[in-house]
């Protein structure tokens, strides 16, 4: 058993990259996807959660994962959360603080890291992924120092973010009804393999969406043929994934 463990959720690699950088720096650290439930066994020095901010808060799967996690043996661990987002606004942290507090643990440290904004359904992709990746790496360095020294950082309540999140987050699961698959699809099944919540099955050589979507954009962004689109919005928009994260990383880490 390792001394430290980090749970992550990631569609386009920003959060996976942060999780890997932190894990490498604190050493003796496992990285586990929050796509499936997990049973903690043994006592960890540090337990971390790294995930993207969705609509001002946590992805549904992350909330469900943490609620189901048995922390009874780890109430005294140093528990931290890192939320990656396009804006760098610290939404997505107050709720996790509440959930962990309700389990008898304490969220000792929470921080948000500004990254490339990946929600291609809503807006075109920006043109500067390498600079954004550099800025992300720079911001991660400070967070690593804090986590190495087990610094405490209070999480302030963000009522506006909580309101926005409550209004929008539940609508995401069915948004995959808006996905369409073009003739360019070559039946490679990458979309199905990269989906972190098993929301895609291959049928007659084409992906079928199962309506428990997180809108993480992994399928849209990693499809090598750009064959998955949302309604008529994304056909002419570019695609993004973190420049230092490969498809193999995404699929291997997930399993
Ligand atoms: C469904 C969805 C909702 C998002 N909502 C927000 C948001 O409210 N605020 C924000 O700053 N970024 C938002 N983003 C951008 C992501 O939080 C950001 O790009 C994140 O770093 C992606 O992480 P990943 O590469 O690990 O998936 C959203 C992205 C998606 C896909
Ligand atoms: S990743 Fe793209 S090309 Fe491959 S099966 Fe899925 S939709 Fe088709
Ligand atoms: S179907 Fe696509 S957008 Fe939805 S959770 Fe799976 S990979 Fe993410």
UniProtKB/TrEMBL annotation:
Keyword NAD: no
Domain 4Fe-4S ferredoxin-type: 175-205, 206-233
Record flagged with keyword Iron-sulfur: yes
PROSITE patterns given in the database record: 4FE4S_FER_1, 4FE4S_FER_2
Entry keyword set: Iron, Iron-sulfur, Metal-binding
UniProt-recorded Gene Ontology molecular function terms: iron-sulfur cluster binding; metal ion binding
InterPro entries noted in UniProt: 4Fe4S_Fe-S-bd (IPR017896), 4Fe4S_Fe_S_CS (IPR017900), EFR1-like (IPR047964), Flavoprotein-like_sf (IPR029039)
Protein name stated in the entry: 4Fe-4S dicluster protein
């Amino acid at each position: 058993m390792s001394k430290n463990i980090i749970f992550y959720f990631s569609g386009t690699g920003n959060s996976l990259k942060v999780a890997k950088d932190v894990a490498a720096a604190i050493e003796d650290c496992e990285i586990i996807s929050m796509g499936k439930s997990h049973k903690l066994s043994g006592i960890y020095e540090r337990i971390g959660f790294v995930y993207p901010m969705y609509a001002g808060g946590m992805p549904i799967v992350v909330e469900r994962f943490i609620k189901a996690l048995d922390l009874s043996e780890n109430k005294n661990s140093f528990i931290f959360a890192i939320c990656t987002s396009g804006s760098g606004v610290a939404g997505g942290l107050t709720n996790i603080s509440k959930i962990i507090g309700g389990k008898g643990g304490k969220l000792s440290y929470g921080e948000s890291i500004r990254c490339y904004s990946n929600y291609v359904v809503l807006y075109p992709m920006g043109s500067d992924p390498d600079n954004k990746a550099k800025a992300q790496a720079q911001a991660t360095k400070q967070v690593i120092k804090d986590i190495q020294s087990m610094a405490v950082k209070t999480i302030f309540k963000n009522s506006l973010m909580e309101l926005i999140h409550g209004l929008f987050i539940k609508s995401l699961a069915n948004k995959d009804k808006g996905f369409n698959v073009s003739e360019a699809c070559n039946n490679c099944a990458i979309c199905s393999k990269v989906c972190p919540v098993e929301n895609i099955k291959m049928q007659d050589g084409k992906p079928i969406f199962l309506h428990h979507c997180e809108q993480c954009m992994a399928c849209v962004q990693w499809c090598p043929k750009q064959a998955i689109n949302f309604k008529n919005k994304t056909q002419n928009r570019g695609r993004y994934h973190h420049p230092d994260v490969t498809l193999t990383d995404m699929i291997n880490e997930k399993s």
